[in-house]
Amino acid sequence: MKFKPQYCQVQDALSILVGKWKPIILLHLMSEGTMRYGETKKALVGITPKMLTSQLRELEEEGLISRKLYPEVPPKVEYSITEYGMTLEPILVAMHDWGTKHVIRKSEM
Amino acid sequence: MKFKPQYCQVQDALSILVGKWKPIILLHLMSEGTMRYGETKKALVGITPKMLTSQLRELEEEGLISRKLYPEVPPKVEYSITEYGMTLEPILVAMHDWGTKHVIRKSEM
DNA sequence: CTGCATCCGGGGGGATACTG
DNA sequence: CAGTATCCCCCCGGATGCAG
């Protein structure tokens, strides 16, 4: 094994992904490319506007996604993943694979 | 891209790894195999006994690590990673790789 | 040596209502 | 359409002290 835990930056990756909706937002943007606010809201069943906005803002501040505002009426905002955001793909893929293989049976608890 | 976000279990993996010290504890146990309580405490600079215990307990409850108590005086407790815990290795490796490549410059902020 | 008990503060996240 | 504004609760994580 080639870990050097003492120099471990695992926490950095984790801190970026922590947030109830962040990983799934990133996955959506990775596969869809670009999505509008309402589009994302429909995709994330159960999310409140406040949460969606805050999660998007934090992802944007980290440089993982970009926000493009069209000065129109009605308003139009598009979110897309950045190159930097794409670097997280291997992690999300690993988590996605793990999640599908090791389904947690919380419904039985 | 082969994601199906609507069936996404990414959150499951994330929820298991969330905890200030969990990833690094798992990495240590993955590389060392077995560690005593005090050994782990020395490895995790700055952790308090309470936190170490709580994180270990939660990892144990998830079935990721196992706890072996030796009824001796003084007490001796050994923690080791389980097979189930090892299934998280790809995720932690991915996060570790990402972390070392994309070092976050928070010290400059 | 390996914990548990207690007190405490901050913030992530939920529900609901309102706005340019 | 794309968000704000408020209120509120839970629980993570820190500090300190005690115990078998």
UniProtKB/TrEMBL annotation, chains A, B:
<dbReference type="InterPro" id="IPR002577">
    <property type="entry name" value="HTH_HxlR"/>
</dbReference>
<dbReference type="Pfam" id="PF01638">
    <property type="entry name" value="HxlR"/>
</dbReference>
<dbReference type="InterPro" id="IPR036390">
    <property type="entry name" value="WH_DNA-bd_sf"/>
</dbReference>
<feature type="domain" description="HTH hxlR-type">
    <location>
        <begin position="8"/>
        <end position="107"/>
    </location>
</feature>
<keyword id="KW-0238">DNA-binding</keyword>
<keyword id="KW-0805">Transcription regulation</keyword>
<keyword id="KW-0804">Transcription</keyword>
<protein>
    <submittedName>
        <fullName>Winged helix-turn-helix transcriptional regulator</fullName>
    </submittedName>
</protein>
<dbReference type="InterPro" id="IPR036388">
    <property type="entry name" value="WH-like_DNA-bd_sf"/>
</dbReference>
